[in-house]
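queue> holo job accepted (cytidine-5'-triphosphate)
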Amino acid sequence: KLRRKQVKGLMRERIPREILEVLKTVGLTAQEAGYKVYLVGGSVRDLFLRSPNLDLDLVVEGNGMDLAKKLARRLGKVRVRTHKKFQTAKLIFDDGLIIDVATARMEYYKSPAALPVIELSSLKMDLYRRDFTINTLAVSLNPKDFGLILDFFDGLRDLKGKVIRVLHNLSFVEDPTRVFRAVRFEQRFNFRIGKFTEGLIKNALKIDAFKLLTGDRLFHELENMLLEEKATDCMRRLGELNLLEVYHPKLKLSDKLEAILDSVEQVMAWYKLSFLTLPTRPWLVYFLALADPLDEAEMEQLCARLALAPRLRREIKEMRAQTLKVLNRLQRNQLSPSKVYDLLHKLKPAYQLYIMAKARQEWAKKAVSRYLGNMTKVKPLLTGDDLAGMGFDPGPLFKEILERVLAARLDGEVTTKEDELALVKSEFGSYLEKTV
Ligand code: CTP
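queue> job finished
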C-alpha cells in the first residue's frame, strides 16, 4: 500500500537552493550511471518537520561508492571517505554539508511456494532495517521522478500523529540503543512513543537486552541525549521508563535529581546565549548532575559501565571532590572577585558550570557567571617587559607580581597603568633594592 506523493514544492521551499542543486546533480549522476538514488532517513523526516538538517543520507540501488566518487569529481570542493567493507562513502563539503552514501543491499527471498526466487525492492529492504517509521521515508532523486516520496511503512501517518513507532517487535532486541533513540526523538520533537512500542521497551528491560550493549555504544547514546536542547526532559523520561537503571542500579528519578538537571539546563541555556557556543564536553555537566546521588564507588561503576577512558575517569573523580570544596567555599559567604577567581580559574568550564548549577544562593551563582562573563578576560596592563624595565629579574617573581596586579585589578584597587606601577613599587620594591 505504497503511497505516492510529490514533495518538490516542499523541497524548494525548505531546502537552500545550493543544496537543492546538489541533490539534482546527485539524481542526474545516478541516472547516467544507471543507478537509482534516494534521499532517506533523518533529513527527509526533518524536511516534513520543517527543521533544518545538513546531514543528508543517500541510498543507492546500484554502486554507492562509484556514485560517491563520480559526485565528488563533478561537485568539487569536497573530501571523500569510503568504507569498502560496508560499501558506504561520506562526502564532506567545506560549508558543513555532509552526504552519506550507502548501497542498498540486494536481497533475494525464497517465496514459500514453488515460485521462483523473488527480488524485493532493495530500497524497501534497506528501510525495513531502520529504527522508527518516521525515519523510513525516502525521496527519489532521479530526474524522471525527482521529489517523489516513497512511504512504505506509514512514516507520514506517524509524523502527522507525532508517534515514535518501531517497524517490528524485535527491533529493540536487535539493537537496544534504539530505546534511547526513541526517547531522544520523542523529547526532541515533542512526539509520543507508541503504546505497543513502549511495551517493547519494557520487554527489553525485562529481558535485560542492554547487558549485551558495549559501554561505548551505551555512552554514545547517553551523550547524544545530553547534547539535546531538552536533555533534562530526556533524562526525566528515561527515569519514568526505569531506564536510568541501565546505567547504574542506584540511578532513579527523584525530585532532587530533577531539580539539579533543571538547573543544569538553565545554566547551559545561559551559557549558550551569553557566549553563542557550548563549553567543551557539554554532556559532562549533565553527567555530573545525573551522578549526583552516587557515592565514589558507585560513580566508578557508572564510569566503568560506560567505558569512559581511564584519564577521564580519574579527572572526574578528582574534580567531583574539588568542585564540592569550591562550592562550599563559594556558598559560605560572599567573596571578593579576586577570591572567586582564585577558586575557579584552575577548573575546566564543565566543572565551573556544574558548580554554578549546584549553587543554591543566587549570589553564589552570580559569582560564577560573573567569573565566566567578565573575569576571564581581565588582564594586567603591566607586562613582563615592563617589570624587566623596572629592574626585576625574570623568574617566578614575575608570575607572583602579575598575579597580585591581576587580583588588584579584579577587585578594583587599580585602574590605570600608573596605579599598577605604584602598587608594584610599594609591595615588591624591596626585591628591587636587594638586586640592585
Ligand atoms: N538507525 C537505526 N538504528 C540505529 C541508528 C540509526 O535504524 N541504532 C537509522 C535511522 O533510521 C536513521 C539513520 O539510521 O534515520 C541514520 O542515523 P543517524 O544519523 O543517527 O540518525 P538521524 O535520524 O539523522 O538522527 P539525528 O537527527 O540525531 O542526526
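queue> Residues 384-435 form one domain.
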